[in-house]
Amino acid sequence: MTSRYYEFYCPVKILAGLKALEHLPAELAERGCAAPMVLTDKGVRQAGLIDHVDLAFTEAGISLDAVFDDIPPDSSTDVVEQIARLFREHNCDSLIAVGGGSVLDTAKAVNILVSEGGEFLRAYVGAHKLTRPLKPLVAIATTAGTGSEVTSVAVIKDTHKQKKDAFQSSHLMPAIAVIDPRMTLTVPPGITAATAMDALTHAVEAYTCLAKNPISDAYAAAAIRKIVAALPTVLADPGHTSARLELAEAATMAGIAFSNSMVGLVHAIGHSLGAVCHLHHGTCMSLLLPYVLQYNYETIRTDLAELLPFLAGDEVARATPLDERAKASIAAIRDLRDMIFDATQLPRSLGESGKVDKSQFEKIADLAVDDGALMFNPVDADRSDVLRILENAWEVPD
Amino acid sequence: MRIGSTLKRAYVSTMMRIVGRGLAIGSRVDSEIARELSHLPVEMTIAMRVYPNGPCCFLQRTHDDLAYLGVRDSGTADMEIIFKHLQHAWLLYTFQENTPVAFARNRIVLDGEVAHATVFNRCLARLLSLILPRVIARRAVKRYPAIALRDKLFLAASIYLRLPLERTRPAL
User: In percent, how much of chain A has pLDDT > 70?
Assistant: First the structure.
């Protein structure tokens, strides 16, 4: 107890609510920025989401002239370096990233080059390589799940080495995150469910892993309550604006929680499962979460029991005996997973996904034990443990 | 308990020598450590350092084993595990905290590949499980491995007996 210590840091200004985008021009002006560059991808452009951003600035008398809308799903150093050159050519002074994880990571990496100087990103690979604030970056997430809008990490593929490089620094965190429900309103139910389960996993792992702390706990628990309440509403009525806002807020809160307390074994296996089987990250989280919680059970049962009111509601928690609450929390997550399956057919097991073959388990386990997230899991896991979890997650028990 | 910083620094420096040499010997006498190290690139250098200018232990993966390059106050490596303060290294080397907990409490900064750090952490955990009495080792590692007492004693003796003979080697 004497050595208890934690750190908590989140300097991101959050603009949240209906028409939140309309606050952006004044926020940038307050930071002395007049020429932002917009980064996005073709999907976001085609969905008409850029139009909301464009209109917010046009009505404020500002024209968004510098737009790069061709960021691929798996962004690379070549793309980052190309955008940085365009940024300089257009004499831009800030960045607005509109999209999912790849767009936000690309924008963070571009910000390194345009703020620190230089042509090549590789000089900044790793942790704590940045020593001064970067240019203002605005993150507008178009999915409610990754939490990238409030994290200090970017992952970019090195085009020449064909490997992914991680960049980590508190200076990478966006200056502003915008949560406007218009930006997630058109996300299809399956993706909405998968990304919500990603956010739920961020929150649950933040609450149960080694770097948990009282402040991240508060964000995590509140995020869980919001997800559990809003997700069924959104799946039943995808155009429900306030429930969409609740989900997006929850994803950001879960992002704040896990960027301060890290994630664990669900993510370690999930990263590897996604890499080997090309399964959507949120789906991996949804499939694995109950089984990893079961694996960690003895060590985290107190934390799990504390989460029951947030996962199942206060009445259920009050009616559940103390020593059964941890198990009830896992059961509540299974119930949520099954509800999602009924609503969207999001797979409940590796077998149901149709994308995983048992012959791939060995490769997944090899990668998972070398994943950095495993370090923060409260229980150690070796290859055989990971293989057992994968076997358990293969099919849903009757 | 208050310990003078000179004494603390001397203790950490001594423990770095023991752990560094122990890992080098372990890479030759324990198949588990050898198997883990085979996942690291040949010629990769590793440092455990106390920021800003505290003791720093250097190791290098060779074609055959892990070489102990010595403890000194300066130099760089391909992967560095940096204690942000002498006190943090003290906590780890007095087995009040294990490495994952030290990472979780932001006492350690990693400069290098995360995957390599996880491999090195497993080697370190295996070494401590072998050379420390079970009651202390359980505090020093996240999970104490299933190992027969006879095997543990044999491997611990193999490492301890070779410690005084383990020499500092030049880098490849």
Answer: 99
